Amino acid sequence: MNNNFVKGSWQEILDWAQNKSINMLHYCTGCGAIELPPTMTSRYDMSRFGIGPAATPRQADLLLVTGYLSTKTLRRLIYTYEQMQAPKFVVGFGSCTINGGMYWDSYNTIKQLDKYLPVEMYIAGCMPRPEAILDGLLKLKKMINNGEADGYQRYQDNLEFYHQNQEAVLGEVQRTQ
Amino acid sequence: MLTKYIFVPAAAAFAAYILNKKNKKAGATITALVSAYLLLSLALIYGSWELNQSFNLSLMGYQLEFLMALTPLSWLFAVLTSAISLLIAVFSIDSQADFKFSSVFNLNFLLVIGSIMGVLFARDFLTLFIFWELMTWTSFYLISSGKKKMAGRAAYRYLILSAAAAYSFLMAVIFIFQQTGSFAFEPAAEFLLNNSAPQSILLLLAISLPFWVKAGIFPLHVWVKDAHGNAPKEFSPFLSGMLLKVGFYGLIVVFHQLSFFKIIENTIAYRGLPLLSYLFALLGAVTIITGTILAIRQEDMKKLIAYSSISQMGYIIIGIAIATPLGFSGSMLHLMNHLIFKSTIFLALAAVIYRTGTTKMYEVGGLIFRMPLTFAAYLTAIIALAGIPPTNGFISKWVIYQALIEKGYLFLALAAFFGSIASFMYVFKPLSTVFLGQLKPQHQEIKEVPLLMKIPMLILIGVIVLFGVFPGIQMNIISQISGDLGIETVNYSLYSIQGAFGAWNSLYIFNVFAAGFVIALLVFGLAKKSKLVGLLDTYSSGEYVTDAESYHYAYQYYRPFDRLFDNLAAKSLTGFYETLTANLLKSGESFRRIFAAGRVQNYALYSVLLFVILAAVGWII
Amino acid sequence: MIDLIYKIGHFLLITVFATALGLLFMGIARKIIARIQKRYGPPVYQPYLDVLKLFGKDAITHGFIFDFGAVMALGGVIATLFFIPLGSWQLYSMEGTVLLVIYLLAVASLGMAMGTVGSGNPQASIGISRALTQMLGYELPFLVILFSLIFRYQTSSIWGLMQAQAGSFLNWNLFAYPMMALVAFVVLIGMMGKKPFDAMIAPSEIGSGPVVESGGKYLGMLLLQKSITIIIELALYVNLFLGGADNIFSFSFKMLIVWILATMFGSLFPRFRIEDGVKFFWKWPLGIAILQALYIII
Amino acid sequence: MRNEKELLELINVHLEPQAVEIKREQNVSVELAPKNLIQALSFLKSHSYQHLSTISCVDWLEEGAFELVYHLFSYDDYINISLKTRIKREPGIFQTAKEIWPVAEFYERDIHEFFGVEFKGNDNLEEMILENWQHLPPMRKDFDTREFVNDQYEWRDYNGQKHTD
Description:
Chain D: It comes from Halanaerobium saccharolyticum. Chain B is mainly alpha-helical. Chain B has helices at about 5-20, 25-45, 70-95, 100-120, 125-145, 150-180, 185-195, 195-215, 220-230, 235-255, 260-265, 275-295, 300-320, 325-355, 370-385, 390-405, 410-435, 450-470, 470-485, 505-525, 560-565, 565-570, 575-595, 600-615; strands spanning about 50-60, 60-70, 270, 275, 490-495, 495-500, 500-505, 530.
């Protein structure tokens, strides 16, 4: 029996289970959080895709960053991300996380989330409507199923890069022990 | 020779006092050796129930006879006393290194052991009274030699209760002596049986008062909490484990050997139980409930366990009062088991106090990673206390439940259920706040206790599990006691007990437990290995926590529950009891003038009356 | 030897069956709640996927007590399971007295409480303090009910209580003592931590309470523990009030009915504050239970 | 219960104002010299203006001054007063109002953080909202936000086309 084959197929099964069951931690930083209740409740009902809310980072697979991030919030976001357990995914929400959005010239709002955390995908819009959110999350499911959502591995591999960027805007960063 | 059980500790007491002045460890070592000797020689006389001894003394024309004898009941209590004092003495060899009064402690401790032996072997009232008073006073000195000063009011309360009870005892005994010309138990029992029932009942109630006080039954439990809160940490296990139980010894003697139950047999009954017995059982039920509610409120670990002792005493008195074979066996089992697990708890807490120097639960936390064995001892003991199988605590509670359901005593059962479920709450509080949670920065360097303090805890853990699997060992001596007292015995084997509705079989339980845990372990072991992180790396809504002190949930752990009983607790804390006692004492002078010319039996009556009044106003503290 | 292998096989079979059934029930409950809220809801097999995913994830531990707590929680419920008659399936259920089962369930609760508080997260402690308080609320009426049942049928074994209701369905305690069955139903909802009585796991106040620090396999094990606990509690109810069953299929069906009713009942209510929940239990269920018990013993 | 006119009379008599103005109903603006301000605050507090809503700050870069505005309110008169005073931009030091209203400590801390004004007597002027801020206080007019942002953050690269302004 080929050991790698077994490992590979087992990983595929886990990926499949992961794509069918995603618990998201919505980090409600900006206005985007208000788009989530309709997405979760009866109008759009994201639970039919196996996506549901999680109460704490320990139980979550998906970190939704729902809006602009001030540097102060970014520090907490990084801490929260590090408390999550692999496999874990980050999705940026709205134009603020992509390029700063309407806060493009604010002195304390970061402009590109993917420089600080390994973002799997962005959902564009200001704010994205529930349809867009669902569309984005379905794409994320596909990515997970195909094993393409490997943000947590990228984070491990490029730890230096991410830490450098984080420390450039935050100074000293407290990390999990 | 039964006198040696009294005089060896007494003689050793003074030796310990003198030697301990030279070497701090000598006193406890002597206590340990004496207890070991007592334990060994008691083991040797097991079964020789015909042993007895008597002295004659001529005093002022009266021929006084001091009688001593060995019964299964007194043998059991003597063994328990010497065993627990052995463990405590071994524990305190190390733990008393910095204790200022260790000489006095060992002197008094050995005297207490000796006087308890005297109480247990006494077969006449005079001997009983002498040793009882000796025990009360020496234990009082022991309690007040704690590091904290015993509050004036608490001491006052204890003395009032003990002295009043002792007087009532003495009056009743002298009355009986006038009638029979003897202090011995048998003639007294015969006299009481043939006397008019109300008078006999009154006399026996007067005689039993000191035992009620010692057992800490509601409403006479007011001294227990303060005594525990102030006693030296090494004495608390003995106080709660043994000293309270001596009260039950006295009660059993009064109920069975002085034929109290025979006298009230034909009075008005409720569901086949004489009303007076039912009243006693109800007192036990109230004791359970008040002790439990107040235990949940405590912030001081010793006081919490003290209140828990009060509530567990309720179970024992219920079992003794309903006096069915199951009830009696259950309460004797519970008496033994309570001694075992409560001593374990107190020893574990004593170890914590030894290392941290505080009894407040919110001042410590997270000690499990520093004192794992102490934690294991505490955990095993609380599993037993909460009555969770497969430990000894469950068996005794199970037997008591069976006894209560068998007769359909709904309200007694309700109190028993309440105490049992609520005991989860109060035993979990120290577990969670002292041993689990965040470790305080000032306790980072704490180490596990020394070997000599570990050994007693280890032995007790073993005993809890042993009796949990083989209750037959305990049932063996209990059935002899029941036989001796004329109660039917319960069917049992080494690992099973026959209840009223089905049997308890600890072997099956143990097997099944093993199977369940193996499956769970397999699930755990086959899954991915987990990564160890620190206690401060917890979900804190994204904020980085550095201050362990404020990140520990300990103070007012059950606030929502306490809110339900705030009114009740506030009422009890008003000092109502003290003011009324003081007023009674003031008017005592005028009382004396009016009633002093009365007959002896009137005195007994007054004592009882005083006690009824005290009981009525003695709303829980 | 054969006997031992047979026994071990039986142990494993019952465990796997109860776990699978419990997870299925959880999936059904999610579907029902979704339909009540006019949602489509996750697929019925969603809990299986959740468990599979959780065991595939990484996990953190806060020390040996955290591990021990999870093992004790799962081991405790598995041990309890063997004492419950599941239809005709019974391993040690002859020995399983009701009181024993109630106290055995406490082993699991204690394990879970110990492990989660051992994580050092104060939110876990708050959740546990609430859970224990609520337990005092619902256990009291339940024990009074057991008192009356044992006194009425003069046996404390679950098997015996089940046999006592044999014959016509009119002998079921549900019809013989409907008030008692109603009280037990409310208690059942409290036991399972369903809606009016779920203050201890309040996700948005205290971060899901006891399980706040559990991720990965720890959460997976607690999910398994939860599923088996559901089966135990439902089986207890079916055995005590619906006359049990003589085969596992009709037994499962009866459990399903009770579960669906409890889920629907639970999805209608907001949440009790913790002391109000206790007050409620001591007022109505306990009061009715005491009246019923008095009726039976007199 | 005074009306606006009576209030201004009271202020004119007791407080040496540089300018007074009734902005609109229930809203009065008073300008004072810095040295009179603390005294004026305690005077108004003793005349029912017990509520300090907030302290705000305006940076007049060309005039080289910080304007501090103390917003007071009276629950008897139902009138808002804005007490304004201008202090020199360099070195930008003023007295604390902490003794009169303890809450002023927080407002002053905030102003210190965002404008760099020192308040003598207030010993709690640590960072409150920003974290690890090493540059000019960000609300000062001479703080060039655009330049800072260009410096601190990178613009996203859209297929080689940098985002420019």
